[in-house]
Design goal:
Layout (H helix, E strand, L loop, with lengths): L6 H23 L12 H15 L5 H6 L4 H5 L6 H15 L6 H8 L2 H8 L3
Helix pairs in contact: 1-2, 1-5, 5-7
């Protein structure tokens, strides 16, 4: 029997919400990527990310249930995401992860999930 827990199970809902609150406080005030989020309600953005990360990290399929198939690349195409924006997003995520009271190895494992996705979202 496999007793390994997913990153979602290790992180938990409370810590995930804490991470997203910290992250989006940084994102919304960022001169580099903050303007990408000006046209959408901040709570909606946070909820979509919460649902997506829940499922992305091995939890229940909240995004699919609430918003449909993620199709993340397609959903991000209307926004200019260049290398600077990608790097800013990753930097802010790393800073936010590092604020968590959590095992360093698990912080590193969590962060390592994001660079490939961020590279995939870059579209200019």
């Amino acid at each position: 029997m496999d007793n390994r827990r997913t990153l979602y199970e290790e992180l938990g809902d409370e810590r995930l919400k804490q991470l997203l609150d910290t992250f989006y406080d940084k994102v919304f005030s960022s001169p580099v990527i903050g303007p990408l989020f000006d046209q959408t309600n901040q709570e909606t953005i946070k909820d979509k990310q919460y649902c997506f990360l829940t499922q992305f990290l091995g939890g229940p399929p909240r995004y699919n249930e609430k918003y449909g198939h993620p199709r993340m690349r397609m959903r991000h195409l209307p926004h200019k995401i260049d290398e600077a924006a990608k790097n800013e997003w990753l930097k802010l995520m790393k800073e936010s992860i590092n604020t968590l009271e959590w095992d360093e190895q698990l912080k590193n494992a969590l962060y390592s999930c994001f660079p490939a996705v961020a590279n995939h979202m870059q579209n200019s």
